[in-house]
DNA sequence: AAACATTTGTCCGTATGTATA
DNA sequence: ATATACATACGGACAAATGTT
């Protein structure tokens, strides 16, 4: 595995960035509960920082939709609305599908091999019922495709949507089915055949089925 | 025209927000040139504010892709790469298309009337060769659809993409063709027929043609 | 190579405005 | 309704880091 070439950005981790990462992680995994009030003074003390980088991090989290700021009043973690999957997945499907389409002509042999290898690990994680790893590997799989699509707008938008998916997962609103692995194989096949329309279509199917599955689960509750 | 119900958010315009709006406007219309170095001290003086709200605004602009921050070194306005339309329009088309699909079953009679009225003004602006107004009205048209789709993720993502489109327009990389108005009518018709697939398809066509038009223009340069 | 000038990142104090008693 | 407590938004100062001479 090649070491990610950090040539561009992270020269040194600034206090704001480390605060952002830590707080986002805490919000996603539920350490900071939905609706919890966030007092910059307290957070600053908890992270051994001053209030400024905390405030800056909170503002970035607000843009991402993890935090809600009421100027002059309060700052809270946003609610986790389980039905939010219904808002989240359609654009996720549309953008992933587009990414697959755009990536198709750009794949190298290494990319394709990497996709197969990743899906192998995905199958294994599913078999072992290791839901957390399955989600992480599924994200790796899609990340390869998004990287190949090489479109910064799609990239950042999907990153944001994925973060919300991850949060819903931690709040037990999402599980991945076994059918995903077969669909992944179909997607890889479309890539190898250099068929962008079919790749896009299969990718859409992959996510739409996920939506349907989750809707069914929701009806049982 | 109904007054926007600001019920939710803007109780009072905070200094950070006014700085953000002003700076974004300056970047979009070219007052702040691409690659221009932004010194927070100078901006603070220009806007009669302290550095803090300026810095906060700049960080939000970085997330939006209008500013690039090199920690410890400098912060600059991002370049305007005219070829960036090729990155920008595909996801814009995909999301607008999705918005049209999702909005179809939700339209009220007033919405549909508003769409027709807006397209009427669009036609007029095109006839008068008022490119700037045409762009603004085109945005209004699509905004009605996005609002009806009622999906916060799609909403914010499209807002961001539109802002970049606007910036490219100001840098003379985009013009709207006359064919758009006819396609708008087709889209409205699909809405009235409650046909989400056709609405999505027509919306996609509308944007893909825009992409093709721009590609042609690019080849002439 | 070393000291300087600039600009950024961070800290903390203060005042305005909000909620609670 | 008034007063009290408190959190936020903003300001200004200091320090670390970078590029320059």
Task: Explain this structure.
The structure is a homodimer of 221-residue chains. Chain A is mostly helical and 221 residues long. The first copy, chain A, has two domains: 15-77, Winged helix-like DNA-binding domain superfamily/Winged helix DNA-binding domain (Arc Repressor Mutant, subunit A); 82-220, GntR ligand-binding domain-like (Four Helix Bundle (Hemerythrin (Met), subunit A)). The first copy, chain A, is 68% helix and 4% strand. Chain A has nine helices and two strands, in the order αααββαααααα. The first copy, chain A, has helices at residues 15-28, 40-46, 51-64, 85-103, 109-127, 131-149, 152-170, 179-192, 196-220; strands spanning 67-70, 74-77. The first copy, chain A, has a two-stranded antiparallel ribbon with strand order 1-2. The longest helix of chain A has 25 residues, at 196-220. Chain A starts with 14 loop residues before the first helix and ends with a helix. The A-B interface holds A 11-12, 14, 52, 55-56, 59-60, 63, 65, 71-72, 87-88, 90-91, 94-95, 97-98, 102, 151-154, 156-157, 161, 164 and B 11-12, 14, 52, 55-56, 59-60, 63, 65, 71-72, 87-88, 90-91, 94-95, 97-98, 102, 151-154, 156-157, 161, 164. The structure holds a DNA duplex (21 and 21 nucleotides).
